[in-house]
Specification:
Elements: H1 20-29, H2 32-49, H3 51-54, H4 92-128, H5 130-144, H6 148-159, H7 163-189, H8 193-200, H9 205-213, H10 218-241, H11 253-260, H12 269-296
Helix pairs in contact: 1-12, 2-4, 2-12, 4-5, 4-7, 4-10, 5-7, 6-7, 7-10, 10-11, 10-12, 11-12
Length: 302
């Protein structure tokens, strides 16, 4: 006997709402710029992983008979060096491919370091409050008072030039962004019913931080991490251009620009190609970050 609404016909299933992960994917897939950026980043990751196979030459091998060779499709070029050579005869394409591996690795390491330190500081400041909160936030404000690149330069000058020190410097300059985001999210979440219920149930402070509140603070942190990768790549390239980052003959895009800037009129491709690599990679991560922000923020969903 049917009671109330009619029973579903045999074989019919009630429509279920999509899971949060599927909903996120569908929202992101509607953003063409974000999807194009995601495809470009995926291709870049594959290039970085298979760099030794894809690179036509040794990135550090010097050919003294082929200095400043133009790209293969230009008069005087050779398909042995498809994108030409740099001022000392090294294959530009091979160095760009290996530079992609280095740039992505730098971005991931910098974001991991700054994310970890910033989240810990933000959680402690948000939960403890009082003088702990004031001390941490004033320290973050002091760090933000200096431009990120300038602060990174100061740290590298103290630690000494080199790729590892450049990554540490860029990570330090990015910590305040994660700390402030985490603290703001914590202050919003700790007043909600589920946190109060966990406290009543006897959950300790560490459990409240890591297992209860932190998972609900991840949305803005994920967006910031995506944007942070592009900032890390750009800042590391800037430090390499200034001679404070990766040191020659390391195939890093900023170092390639620094080594070739004196030949911009005679051989513009040696400067243009690394610059385009930095531009497209940073733009792709920024567009992906914007797409993730739109997908994760319910106020921006259409």
């Amino acid at each position: 006997m049917k009671i109330g609404a009619e029973a579903a016909a045999p074989g019919e299933t009630e429509a279920r709402p999509p899971s949060p992960s599927r909903e996120l994917w569908l929202t992101l897939a509607a953003n063409r710029a974000a999807m194009l950026s995601l495809g470009f980043i995926a291709a870049l990751v594959l290039v970085a992983v298979f760099a030794p196979v894809l690179a036509p030459n040794d990135p550090n091998a010097i050919d003294k008979l082929s200095l400043l060779l133009p790209p293969a499709w230009v008069d005087g070029g050779s398909w042995t060096y498809p994108l030409g050579t740099d001022p000392v005869g090294r294959c530009t394409l091979s160095r760009l491919i290996h530079g992609a591996r280095l740039s992505l690795l730098v971005g991931l390491i910098v974001v991991t370091l700054s994310f970890g330190a910033g989240v810990v500081l933000g959680l402690v400041a948000g939960f403890r409050g009082g003088w702990v909160d004031s001390t941490v936030m004033r320290l973050m404000d002091l760090t933000l008072a200096l431009p990120g690149l300038l602060l990174a330069i100061v740290v590298v000058v103290i630690l000494g030039p080199g790729l590892v020190n450049a990554m540490i410097a860029v990570a330090i300059s990015n910590v305040p962004h994660y700390a402030r985001l985490t603290r703001a999210a914590v202050l919003t979440e700790i007043t909600k019913d589920y946190v109060i219920a966990s406290k009543v149930a006897g959950a300790g402070t560490l459990r409240l931080m890591v297992a209860t509140v932190l998972p609900n603070c991840l949305a803005p942190l994920i967006v910031q991490s995506t944007l942070g990768i592009s900032a890390a790549i750009l800042d590391t390239a800037a430090l390499g251009f200034l001679g404070l980052g990766a040191q020659p003959p390391t195939p890093e895009w900023g170092t390639m620009l620094a080594d070739s800037r004196g030949f911009i009129q005679r051989a513009p491709w040696v400067v243009t190609l690394p610059g385009l690599a930095i531009l497209t990679t940073v733009l792709a991560f920024n567009l992906l970050g914007d797409g993730l922000r739109d997908a994760l923020d319910p106020r921006l969903k259409r």
